[in-house]
């Protein structure tokens, strides 16, 4: 099929197999400056004192705000279909990345 059939305003997005596999993360470290938000996704394993950043996403403040809104809307739809997501208490993880927020 040719790209000539694409509707105006549509974006053709490719997803290769490696990226489609995804990366599991159970910790997100969020930092920001005046011009960007940096989201580091980490996998912490029980009993292992060291972890590596598995993926990093860098966003403009405008895109970070759009992502926040999109995630909120998707959580709302998920909870309507599947019930409330319970927020369990997690022990604080000491991190040495400087001032950060956690999600």
TrEMBL record:
The organism's place on the tree of life at top rank: Bacteria
Pfam family, any one: DUF3467
Q: Which InterPro entries match?
A: DUF3467
- The name this protein carries in UniProt is DUF3467 domain-containing protein
Q: Organism classification, top ranks?
A: Bacteria, Pseudomonadati, Bacteroidota, Flavobacteriia, Flavobacteriales
């Amino acid at each position: 099929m040719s790209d000539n059939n694409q509707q105006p305003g549509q974006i053709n997005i490719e997803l290769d197999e490696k990226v489609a596999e995804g990366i599991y993360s159970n910790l997100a470290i969020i930092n920001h400056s005046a011009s960007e938000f940096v989201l580091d996704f980490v996998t912490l394993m029980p009993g292992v004192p060291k972890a590596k950043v598995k993926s990093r996403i860098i966003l403009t403040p405008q895109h970070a705000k759009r992502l926040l809104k999109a995630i909120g809307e998707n959580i709302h739809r998920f909870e309507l279909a599947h019930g409330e997501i319970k927020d369990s208490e997690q022990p604080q993880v000491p991190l040495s990345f400087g001032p950060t927020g956690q999600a």
